[in-house]
Amino acid sequence: MIWKTMSNNLVLRILSSSVNISAKAGSIVRDVMKTGELAVVDKGVNDLQTEADRRAQNCIITSLSKQFPKIAIIGEETLDPNDKIDDKWIVSSFDESVLSHKCPEEWLNVTDEDIVVWVDPLDGTSEYTQGLLDHVTVLIGLSVKGRAIGGVIHQPFYNFDKENDSTKLGRTIWGLVGLGAYGFQHRQPPVGKVIVTTTRSHSSPTINAAIEHINPDEVIRVGGAGHKVLLVIEGQAHAYVFPSRGCKKWDTCAPEAVLESLGGRLTDVFGNQLRYDRNVEHTNELGVLATHCARTSHPYFLAKFSDDIKASLLSSSQMKRNN
Ligand code: AMP
Ligand code: MG
Ligand code: MG
After folding, report:
1. Which numbered ligand comes closest to the C-alpha of 25?
2. Ligand 1 lined by 199 (C-beta under 6 Å)
3. What gap in Å lies between CA 42 and CA 217, rounded to an integer?
């Protein structure tokens, strides 16, 4: 296998920069919470934006586009171009531990034109506003030729409930398909039990029917796509089940890449790979299924989605297309 040192490899440089940028965005998210002035804006039904979402996205997009002016970057929030961007939010450093890795051969010749970076500056906004702080993540996903291959999941409030003041607040997990994932302890979920995680703030009768059909031993209802995939890779759940529309490409790109780098899988409920090309529809219309093992768990959970559930997703996607 041919390896190349990483200091000049585009994929590793973007991930390395994103690791440091995500930590800065996380500190912005914590700072806004400390002020208590969230300045919430309603973007739609059950869809909020706070000052933290806006500032963190400005930090991420401004920093990344300064370092990588030729790549496409798509962020969740529509921002006011007149927003003031504090110089302190601009990150130009690289995480050395990422750069110390060798890039898998398949990503050695990636060019700027191949790349779309998907940014969710604050995943789990609803939970953030309710003080469920460990549900919150900052997501930076790297796609190449429409496929999620690299991801950074920063959890700004990790350890926030620990009593010991010296415990470090926040952590950053990153992964690259073909290389693996770092910054956490990869664990397998328990054998002989079925544990699923799903939404707590965007539930629906279809989601509940699907979960009833799976008949799991335990259901963990928490916020954020990033947080739920963390539960899967840390062995607390076998699957993240969301047979509904609403979850977007910026929610799934980074989690999908991290999960797949560890042998897990994230697809729609039909088992189709999600696409991340720059002109793609932002909503994951046919739902999301993420599991800890591509070989065993994924087919097991895919088989649990009934024809009725699949038909209801297809018809809502069709209706959307006709409107
Ligand atoms: P949840 O599991 O409910 O936290 O959702 C995961 C991600 O998908 C979050 O970023 C949500 O904002 C988004 N999402 C899921 N369902 C909806 C919906 N019905 N409307 C808007 N956003 C949604
Ligand atoms: Mg989100
Ligand atoms: Mg968000």
Report:
1. 3
2. yes
3. 36
